[in-house]
Amino acid sequence: MSRAYAGHRIVITGAGAGIGALMAEKFAARGAEVIVTARREQAARDVSEHIRNSGGEAFPYVLDVTDIDSIPAFRDKLHAERGRITMLINNAGVVFGGEFEQLPLADHLNTFQVNTNGLVAMTHAFLPDLIQASSAWLVNIASASAFLGLPYGSSYAASKWAVVGFSESIRLEMQMREFDHVGVTTVCPSYIATGMFEGVKTPLLSPMLTPDKVVRSILKGLKRGDAFVIEPPMARSVELLKGTLPRGIWDQVARITGVSTSMYSWRGKSRK
């Protein structure tokens, strides 16, 4: 196994399960020291113990990104106990599905608090670490829904649109400030089989992704220095089609292919 990330210290939010846990495992196997964060202490401990039993280096920390005020204290604690980081992976996320006005407003606002506000707050807290490192990376997990409207998942899509705009802005800002050693990658997968999207009907030519497929694509994208990692391949054409076709025709295409109807039957769990 390659030791490509030896010497790196990586914070991963929402790493107690799903692709967060798998990313922690894969980066640790490649030599990184992984900071496994999760809302539940036992989940963080279980993932970290699994990594250590496999010969990797991992340390569990409790972190709820919705508690914005606690993030600087978490950073300071991490600095005191482990040191500065060289990579931040903002992976924590929630999704709620259903008719917009039938969902409690609290669910919509919580979606933004986790998917957008928490991600921005984590980046604000740790970007100085990345700037001071000799080689660093910011990885933000967005969604293929960031490129289109998603009926029955409107606040989820909107929160991920915000992540794409934020990530691209930071990427360009790093270039303009001549911090070329800080890479920024935005990950935009379609539906992943982690339980969050149980019940969805995946669009035409867009099968349910496995966590392993997504994580392998992330690792390849980072190795290439990609600004975007988009899966599956069909999702890469959405922006082009939406921007090229007349609005009415695109709306029909989105319905026929299942792009805009996929969340109608959602019954998955809300949080990863």
Q: How many structural domains are formed by the residues?
A: 1
Rg, Cα atoms, Å: 18 Å
Strand line-up across the major sheet: 3-2-1-4-5-6-7
Structural class: alpha/beta
CATH domain class: Alpha Beta
Q: Helices and strands in order, then pairings?
A:
Elements: E1 9-12, H1 18-29, E2 33-38, H2 41-53, E3 57-62, H3 71-81, E4 87-90, H4 105-132, E5 136-141, H5 154-176, E6 182-189, H6 211-224, E7 228-231, H7 238-244, H8 247-257
Parallel strand pairs: 1-2, 1-4, 2-3, 4-5, 5-6, 6-7
Overview of this protein structure:
The protein is α/β, with parallel strands linked by helices. The protein has a single domain (9-257), classed as Rossmann fold (3-Layer(aba) Sandwich), CATH 3.40.50.720. Helices cover 44% and strands 14% of the residues. The chain has 8 helices and 7 strands. It has helices at 18-29, 41-53, 71-81, 105-132, 154-176, 211-224, 238-244, 247-257; strands at 9-12, 33-38, 57-62, 87-90, 136-141, 182-189, 228-231. The chain has a 7-stranded parallel β-sheet, with helices on both faces. Strand 4, helix 4 (105-132) and strand 5 (136-141) form a beta-alpha-beta unit. Helix 1 runs parallel beside helix 2 (41-53) and helix 4 packs parallel to helix 5 (154-176). The longest helix is centred in the middle third of the chain and has 28 residues, at 105-132.
Name the descriptors:
single chain, 272 residues, alpha/beta, Rossmann fold, seven-stranded parallel beta sheet, 8 helices, 7 strands, globular
